[in-house]
Amino acid sequence: MAKKTLNIIESAYRAVMEEQDDTVLWLLATMQDAGAEHTVVLRGNAVNYAIAGQGAPGLTVGEWKQTQAPKMDRDVVDLIEKRKIPVYVVEEDLTERGIERSELVPGVKLLSRRALPGLFAEHALVSHW
User: Fold this and answer.
1) Could you count the other beta carbons within 10 Å of the beta carbon of residue 49?
2) Three-state DSSP state, 80
3) Which residues have CB under 8 Å from 60's CB, separation 6+?
4) Rounded to an integer, what is the distance from CA 9 to the centroid of its chain?
5) What is the C-alpha to C-alpha distance for residues 18 and 118, in angstroms, rounded to an integer?
6) What is the DSSP string of 28-68?
7) What pTM, to 2 d.p., does this model score?
8) Which helix (H) or strand (E) element contains residue 5?
9) What would the pLDDT profile of 58-113 be if each residue is shown by its tens digit?
10) Residue 106 and residue 50 in contact, taking contact as beta carbons nearer than 8 Å
11) Measured distance CA(129)–CA(112) in Å, rounded
């Protein structure tokens, strides 16, 4: 049986323009499909991933155009609905960025910083990205 892994994602938007998705979210979806058991906590700037309807316009560098811009909110919804991965956002990080609960995609759970240790205790492994 797979060990339960808690994945704390704090570093946001790394390689998203090159890969059209966050490499960690993609990796977790793939591992979950292979039988792993994951939980995700979005904190710091990564809480922005859970804002519904966000997008990044296509990027042009010289002659090259990025035509498949990342849709982080879609990737978060995929984790929750299709992959059945629980996704939490740290409430205080939302507040610090002026993000309201009503702006988030459905299914995201709120978690206070004080509740993080309890979530750690429920998982055999903790990864910080």
Assistant:
1) 27
2) helix
3) 66
4) 6
5) 36
6) HHHHHHTT-EEEEEE-GGGGGGGBTT------EETTEE--S
7) 0.87
8) strand 4-9
9) 677 898 877 777 788 999 999 999 999 999 999 999 999 999 999 999 999 999 99
10) no
11) 19
Residue type, 124: A
The neighbour count for residue 123, using CB atoms within 10 Å, is 16
Helices (H), 49-122: 72-81, 91-96, 116-121
Query: How many C-beta atoms surround the C-beta of residue 69 within 10 A?
Result: 13
In sequence order, what are the beta bridge partners of 113? none
- And the tokens for 112? 């206070």
AA identity, residue 31: M
Both tokens of 116, joined, read: 């993080």
What is residue 88's three-state secondary structure? strand
Query: Which tokens hold the place of 33?
Result: 């499909």
